[in-house]
Amino acid sequence: MRAFCSLLLLAAVPAVLAVKTQDFKTCSQSAFCRRGRGLSARAQEASSSWVSPYSVDASTISIAPNLASFTAAVKSSLYPDIKFGLDVRIHDDGVVRVRMDEVDGLRKRYDGAASWALVAEPELSSKIRWSVGKADVRAKYGDKKDVEVVVAFNPLRVTLLQGGKEQVVLNGKGLLHMEHFRAKENSPKEEPAGESEQVVMQVNNRAWFEGDSEDEYWEEKFGSWTDSKPKGPESLSLDISFPNHGHVYGIPQHATRLSLPTTTGENAYYSEPYRLYNADVFEYLADSPMSLYGSIPVMHAHSAGSTVAIFNAVGSETWIDVAHPSPKSTETHWISESGILDVFIMPGPTPADIFAQYTRLTGTPALPAHWALGYHQCRWNYISSNDVRDVQKRFDMEDMPVDVFWLDIEYAEEHKYFIWDKKNFPDPVDMMHDVEDIGRKMVVIIDPHLKRTDNYPVYQEANERGLLVKSADGEKDYEGWCWSGSSAWIDFFNPNSWDWWKTLFKTLPQGDRWSWTDSTIDTYIWNDMNEPSVFNGPEISMPRDNVHHGGWEHRDIHNINGMLLHNLTSQAVMTRTDPPRRPFVLTRSFYAGSQRFGAMWTGDNLGTWEHMAAGVRMVLANNIGGFSFAGSDVGGFFGNPDSEMLVRWYQVGIFSPFFRAHAHIDTKRREPYLLDEPYKSIIRNVLRMRYSMLPVWYTAFRETSVTGLPVLRPHYVAFPHDEAGFAIDDQFFVGSSGLLVKPIVEKGATHTTVYLPEDQVYYDYFTHDVHRGASKGKSVTIQADLHKTPLLIRGGSIVPTRERPRRSSPLMKYDPFTLRIALSNQDVAHGELYLDDGETYSHRDGHFVWREFIAEKTEKKSKAVRISSRNLAAQKPGEAVDGVALTKYDGSNDFAKSMADVRVERVVIFGAATKPASVKMGDSELQWEYTQGVAASDKREGMASVLVIKDPGVSITSDWEIVVQA
Ligand code: NOJ
């Protein structure tokens, strides 16, 4: 079985590693995808004579008393007896929700996907007036009344327009098709039509529309598996066009470019559609539209003038074709196996608006615990308590910071999660306390498969309570194969499992219920294999005809399944204590909304340069999908990277929101202290760099937890009007900090080019070299020797750091700050810093510090620059932290008081044109040092002048002003 295969993997990555493509379906091996693509092919062939058979019965339009929504009956001329219902709503932020379902059908379609994804039922607009005309129903809204939604009756077509321009069109190509439920025996058979006849057939002919055969309607085979498909065909096809947008992004998770390449049309880059079907893909390809572990059915469409997006709330397998009929327009075709049509159209019009609209629907990312942004050291496996202690000791001896040590599956006796293998881990609580001694944490893996054995209380309790997923007959518990051998899976769709699961994580005894008393409140959790991965199942997962709570088949909820484990584990960890503390749970599988529950990583990557580069793009795509807390296994899961690759991989890691090194069980140990010089010292510095920048990361996480703006921002997000940046996915900005990173992902690099999107000065973070962009964009060359990650500070930014080397982040709590001020072309700069206790929820009660730093001219024409610090919370009380609006903020809250002695120890100003005459706080002259820069010449761009103000003696929590007099 697969478990054993992977254990046998060779230690080194063989020259050619390839995914076992035969384990996973292509579109042509999936009946409903085949049917969906067939529909699209017939539409193309029929060209302008193709007409969608779906129409709105205008006489049934019913506008709700709230006026923001209406319902109407929809018919298909192919099946006049089948009824469909349409429901269109406009939310108070302008998002349009379009739902369609079969009405009074033989069965019910699954309609729960949105309810798992949405954070709350959206508020409807109170300003909408639908007007019903002869051919359509329409509504105009928006501040300038320039957004319009038009629902055309015949054929049914939904269009969102902005400024009179079509932005999003549903069913504009006539590919809408909701396969209705039918009885097997009565299923109508069409006579196969001859090829020439097909083209001339009329709209009402089913074969013309659907194809002339019942293509695997009632049973489907793949390899040795047969899917019994008791409900028959129920797929959903929908075309979504963006007539004025030349780039689409999102729909993670795929190892592909950020601006999604085409899958159909002339010169299609891929021949397969993008697939969303959460899967454990062994040795996945670095460039492919194949499915991976998670699915976020969210797509942004972007042009210089506008950004729009859609969220297709479907939980079943979905294939998506992408085409560019012209460079400035995009057509997509979504084919899902089951479920209702439930599409949210986000009108933008800017990327920032889209993030706000999307996270209002599905929630903003939770503000993580501060330590979770430190360095995580993992491998499969640290094999004993003493191994963990030794690794910790080595980090300390080498002065390498680390916050978290991880345990993979071998800690668990026979892979019975929660149960320690006492031979190797005789003293788990003591071991954890040893790790926790200087504020470090442990993360331990808990997978969702339970070993089916009597001596496993977790399985026993789940079994007794009837909480396990059932086989196709709906009666027998499903049995499959995973790490623990013969296993059963908890059905988290069953609400009875929720409290039970949460109780397992309590560290104190819970009466007759089992709980994890062999753990501590600083033990955090890793949820792996939750696609779910089933080694002997079809496509390494669960049979689609398995049955979940409520009688839903696995096919209906497959892509949501993994998120439920993540959600419940996160709640369990949070409520282990009273009052609750911020949880940390890493998940491999995810869906829209998963950002509320913790972090994700990109699964089993390979120790190759291609995978390193792919990881950067995948993490960016996840940020686009609203799920910023993402990273890839540093070092690559499979293989033994050489020292150069490892260094570069750490440099990628420190600029990932989630930063963890991990390695397969068969790889050689590669903890950074094992490297020879100079690599060891380089990685030590790289790790320290991450720690010095924790204030930047934490501040960026505060922002995403409120606005949804991602922590990593690709160019189209940061500079939405700059077309030259729309396809860039190998460099990015960190939050609003002004830091621009271009990780090196190739062997032997000494230089790289970085694209600067604007007429602004950028400074090399390390060398202070000056690089000037241009209003039409410009590429500059940056030095990138092995010890150096190309990192620029955008002129106009102020970056707060903490630069005392420490062994873990909690030890930095009272460390002083350095402020790096990068003056812009106009001699101004701005930056932010957010701080709180980093692990409780007291910030929601106003216990935090949120500062703004400003550098500006003292007067318009003056050359003197004033640098000041002011309280930002007082200015933006409504949007302070973590999605919780604070009505009042008291600057002398307990947390702020506890930080009052924390100083700014250094202010470093890049770009001060001349040596100052004085640098003063009030009347007192401060200590400072000025290094004259080097002017630009034809040969080089020059080096910035740097003014260092030493220990100005100010607190990080208070208001102050320093004046630099020229
Ligand atoms: C698969 C995960 O992707 C990997 O990170 C982990 O080490 C193994 N499962 C073993 O738990």
Could you describe the 3D structure shown?
The protein is α+β, with helices and mostly antiparallel strands. Among the domains are: 23-181 and 234-250 and 295-358, Sandwich (Immunoglobulin-like); 816-966, Sandwich (Immunoglobulin-like). The protein is built from 18 helices and 51 strands. The strands form nine sheets. Strands 5, 6, 7, 8, 9, 10, 13, 15, 18 and 19 form a ten-stranded antiparallel beta sheet that branches. A nine-stranded parallel beta sheet has the order 30-29-28-27-23-22-21-32-31. The chain has an eight-stranded antiparallel beta sheet with strand order 1-2-3-4-20-17-16-14. The radius of gyration is 29 Å and the shape is globular. The N and C termini lie far apart (73 Å). The relative contact order is 0.09. The model is unreliable at 1-16 and 190-203 (pLDDT under 50). The site of 1-deoxynojirimycin has 10 residues, from loops. Its main location: endoplasmic reticulum. InterPro entries: Gal_mutarotase_sf_dom (IPR011013), GH (IPR017853), Glyco_hydro_31_C (IPR048395), Glyco_hydro_31_N_dom (IPR025887), Glyco_hydro_31_TIM (IPR000322), Glyco_hydro_b (IPR013780). Residues 1-18 form the signal peptide.
Give the helices and strands, then pairings.
Layout lengths: L1 H6 L23 H16 L7 E10 L5 E8 L2 E12 L5 E8 L9 H5 L13 E2 L3 E6 L5 E6 L4 E6 L2 E6 L6 E2 L16 H6 L5 H5 L9 E3 L2 E3 L8 E7 L4 E4 L23 E3 L21 E5 L4 E6 L5 E9 L2 E8 L4 E6 L4 H12 L13 E2 L7 H13 L6 E4 L20 H9 L4 E5 L3 E3 L5 H8 L15 E3 L2 E5 L6 H9 L18 E5 L26 H21 L10 E3 L11 E3 L7 H16 L5 E2 L1 E2 L8 H11 L6 E2 L17 H14 L1 H14 L4 E2 L1 H4 L13 E3 L4 E3 L9 E6 L4 E4 L5 E3 L5 E6 L7 E4 L2 E5 L15 E6 L6 E7 L13 E9 L7 E7 H4 L18 H5 L4 E8 L7 E4 L2 E2 L1 E5 L14 E10 L4 E6 L1
